[in-house]
Specification:
By secondary structure, this protein is α+β, with helices and mostly antiparallel strands. It has 2 domains: 3-157, no CATH class; 162-232, no CATH class. The chain is 38% helix and 15% strand. Bound molecules: cobalamin and iron/sulfur cluster (SF4) (2 copies). Residues 173-175, 177, 188, 191, 201, 206-208 line the site of one iron/sulfur cluster.
Length: 233
């Protein structure tokens, strides 16, 4: 089996659920333990979504599984875990503690860089994407299968913020939560609880994220935006 076939199979299985293989790499720095404790990862494949491709699939699942506390995490696990196991890997998830360094992994796998908002920005999808899990491969043969070719674009993608002279994302937040010292999460959350925050960001999405001109065609639907904002606020 060649590298292309291995990753194509994973990608095809994920595509049935509106997800995709976002990128892959072989960890070169500190060893990453396999979730089972059996050795360390030789290859890491990031699973995520661009825009709202998974949203209709998830909405249908949610309608059939009412009353679940963390529905998106639960759905992600129900989809990605069996795909990982069938491929001979083990899945990990961004919301599980101890937190795995998903953004560092994304920088290694996709060549992305952080925007001034803290989120990484993609040259095509802008700020409208996310990670739903990662598949770790321990065995060297399997690792070769999924890393036979480097991720498309790794290290080559131009960073959109470098050529964005106005940086409208930095002036859109009503409480100026994005500071040189980092994201003032308590200021943001207090505002979201106010009437103005409820009518504004909670309803229409983070105004800073909305202000970015990159990847607007991937902007989430109103329902998806409200779901993510409710989970955050
Ligand atoms: C804790 C957490 C938060 C916390 C604190 C973030 C922070 N200061 O580190 C809070 C609650 C504030 C938060 C908010 C959001 N988060 Co968050 N968060 C996480 C989580 C679960 C753990 C981060 C961590 O410490 N990891 C462990 C360290 C070791 O890993 P790391 O890669 O080195 O971590 C990097 C981040 O901490 C980052 N960072 C530093 N400051 C900030 C600030 C912000 C706003 C973000 C997003 C990241 C960030 O720098 C680190 C070094 O690269 C990750 C998932 C994960 N497992 O990483 C998601 C994650 C970073 N969040 C994510 C997102 C999308 C958001 C929100 C936009 C959620 C939403 N509503 O859609 C908001 C931002 C709100 C806004 N208005 O902009 C995405 C980012 C994807 C991307 N494009 O980069 C992640 C990867 C989850 C995912 N499923 O994809 N988040
Ligand atoms: S508005 Fe400009 S600086 Fe801000 S995230 Fe988008 S491209 Fe980057
Ligand atoms: S959600 Fe609203 S208050 Fe929070 S950072 Fe975004 S624009 Fe600012």
């Amino acid at each position: 089996m060649t590298g292309a076939v291995g990753t194509d199979l994973l990608d095809a299985a994920l595509a049935d659920h509106g997800l995709c293989l976002r990128g892959r790499f072989s960890p070169g720095g500190p060893a990453v333990a396999m979730p089972s404790g059996a050795g360390t990862a030789s290859a890491i494949c990031l699973v995520g979504h661009a825009g709202g491709a998974f949203w209709p699939v998830f909405e249908a699942w949610r309608a059939a599984h009412p009353g679940i506390d963390d529905p998106l995490d639960t759905w992600s696990k129900s989809v990605i875990t069996p795909i990982a196991e069938a491929a001979g890997g083990e899945a990990v998830f961004p919301s599980d503690r101890p937190w795995q360094p998903f953004q560092q992994w994304a920088m290694a796998a996709e060549g992305l860089k952080p925007s001034p908002l803290g989120m990484l920005i993609h040259p095509d999808y802008g700020l409208w994407y996310g990670y739903r899990g990662a598949i770790l491969f321990e065995r060297a043969a399997m690792a070769r299968m999924v890393t036979g070719e480097p991720s498309a674009g790794t290290g080559l993608a131009p960073h959109p913020c470098d050529t964005c002279s106005d940086k409208p994302c930095l002036s859109a937040c009503p409480v100026e939560a994005f500071t040189p010292a980092g994201f003032a999460v308590s200021d943001c959350r207090s505002y979201l609880k106010s009437e103005a925050g409820w009518d504004g960001c909670m309803h229409s999405g983070c105004l800073a994220r909305n202000a970015c001109p990159v990847g607007r065609s991937y902007r989430y639907s109103a329902g998806q935006i409200r779901f993510h904002m409710a989970a955050f606020g």
